[in-house]
């Protein structure tokens, strides 16, 4: 199909929308992909969009992926925008990941840990070779699944905690900070930082986490434990006075273990970085845990000199929705601003030319 340029304000914009819809659909001879197919077969993309869009709804996230032609940042933008239209009718109780229905659970610090390693669905042990059988519609053999014994799966930090070798949990009854309703100020509390990281851009957090491993973070990390599975979500309606289970939520949790030389108030021990994201997102959870630990430098008495240790730099720049808006607004009309800059440059060039001509005349004399 051939297109011609359309001039004139709203007509041009409407035509751009129609053109975009036609491009999104692609070749009409190819069957249209459904949102159900996206949700079921492109699950990692859907999980990332839900995490960065800050809304758990696989159906809506799949629709956003389809509408954005697979542009995951644009899809997260669509989901985040839709989120603002939803009423907030309750706050959940803190989820208890210790009772997670486990699909995958691994540790890099203990080989024979209680409960054992559960590899689950992972690409960690596959060769990075294109599988052309998928193009031919290959149907995989069903995997064997066994019910894990949750009672035999203590957390790694609980095991280390028995000897006092890792920092203890710091429970708090304070109302959690809400970055969607309260203005963020620095230094930000850890709950505010974790919220920002949880919906931050995976690529940005991966780069920041990578930087801490290359010397710009001051810590040596170990993956204490990664858990992938479903957690129960509960709310406590005021009229009932007790918690009720409203469903299960798939999440990925990462506890990163880091060396700590100690301070005047704390003995040498391991410290922790924490990551938790919607769905199956190990890379994001690990990167989040690395950055969380880096951002704790000041509270642990460490010198904060690296970019990943700078709260304002990380928090202000990790949100790809904010970044997208600020970068892509440059495509919008800036005619008046540019004309002003253009006149300034012309004036400066004219002044410079007059100055050069004057200096040439003086040199000739």
Low-confidence stretches: 1-6
Task: Enumerate how many helices there are, as a single number.
Answer: 12
Helix residue percentage: 25-40%
- Name the structural class: alpha+beta
Oligomer description:
single chain
Integer average pLDDT: 88
How do the SSEs run, as a string of H and E?
HHHHHEHHHEEEHHHH
Give the termini distance in whole angstroms.
Answer: 69 Å
Strand content: 5-15%
Instruction: Name the shape in a single word.
Output: globular
Largest sheet: spatial strand order: 1-2-3-4
**What is the β-strand count?**
4
Radius of gyration (Å): 26 Å
* Count of individual domains: 2
How would you sum up the major sheet? 4 strands, antiparallel
What does this protein structure show overall?
With 365 residues, the chain is of the alpha+beta class. The protein folds into 2 domains: 75 residues; 201 residues, no CATH class. Helices cover 39% and strands 12% of the residues. Strands 1-2-3-4 form a 4-stranded antiparallel beta sheet. α2 packs across α4, α3 crosses α4 and α4 packs across α5. The N and C termini lie far apart (69 Å).
Structure summary:
This protein is an alpha+beta fold.
What brief labels describe this structure?
single chain; 365 residues; alpha+beta; 4-stranded antiparallel β-sheet; 4 strands; disordered N terminus
Topology at a glance:
Elements: H1 9-25, H2 35-41, H3 43-53, H4 58-67, H5 72-83, E1 101-106, H6 156-161, H7 190-198, H8 202-213, E2 221-235, E3 244-258, E4 271-278, H9 282-295, H10 311-317, H11 320-328, H12 335-364
Antiparallel strand pairs: 1-2, 2-3, 3-4
Helix pairs in contact: 2-4, 3-4, 3-5, 4-5, 7-9, 8-9
């Amino acid at each position: 199909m051939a297109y011609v340029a359309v001039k004139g304000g709203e007509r041009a914009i409407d035509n751009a929308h129609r053109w975009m819809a036609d491009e999104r659909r692609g070749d009409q001879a190819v069957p249209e992909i459904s949102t159900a197919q996206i949700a079921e077969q492109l699950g990692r993309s859907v999980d990332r969009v839900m995490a960065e869009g800050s809304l758990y709804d696989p159906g809506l996230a799949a629709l956003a992926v389809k509408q954005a032609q697979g542009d995951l940042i644009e899809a997260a933008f669509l989901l985040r925008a839709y989120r603002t239209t939803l009423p907030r009718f309750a706050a959940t109780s803190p989820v208890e990941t210790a009772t997670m229905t486990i699909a995958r659970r691994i540790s890099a610090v203990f080989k024979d840990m209680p409960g054992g390693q559960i590899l689950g669905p992972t690409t960690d042990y596959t060769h990075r070779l294109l599988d052309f059988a998928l193009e031919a519609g290959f149907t995989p053999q069903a995997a064997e699944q066994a019910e894990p014994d949750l009672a035999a799966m203590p957390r790694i930090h609980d095991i280390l905690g028995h000897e006092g070798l890792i920092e203890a949990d710091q429970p708090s009854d304070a109302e959690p900070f809400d970055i969607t309703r309260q203005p963020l100020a620095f230094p930000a509390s850890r709950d505010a930082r974790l919220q920002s990281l949880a919906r931050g851009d995976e690529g940005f957090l991966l780069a920041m986490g990578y930087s801490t491993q290359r010397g710009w973070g001051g810590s040596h990390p170990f993956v204490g434990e990664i858990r992938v599975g479903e957690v129960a979500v509960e709310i406590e309606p005021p009229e009932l006075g007790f918690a009720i289970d409203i469903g299960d939520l798939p999440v990925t949790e990462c506890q990163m273990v880091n060396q700590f030389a100690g301070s005047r108030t704390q003995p040498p021990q391991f410290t922790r970085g924490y990551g938790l994201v919607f769905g199956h997102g190990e890379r994001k959870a690990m990167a989040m845990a690395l950055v969380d630990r880096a951002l704790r430098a000041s509270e642990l008495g460490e010198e904060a000199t690296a970019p990943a240790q700078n709260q304002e730099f990380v928090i202000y720049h990790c949100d790809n929705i904010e970044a997208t808006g600020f970068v892509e607004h440059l495509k919008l009309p800036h005619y008046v601003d540019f004309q002003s800059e253009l006149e300034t440059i012309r004036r400066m060039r004219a002044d410079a030319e007059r100055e050069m001509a004057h200096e040439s005349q003086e040199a000739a004399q």
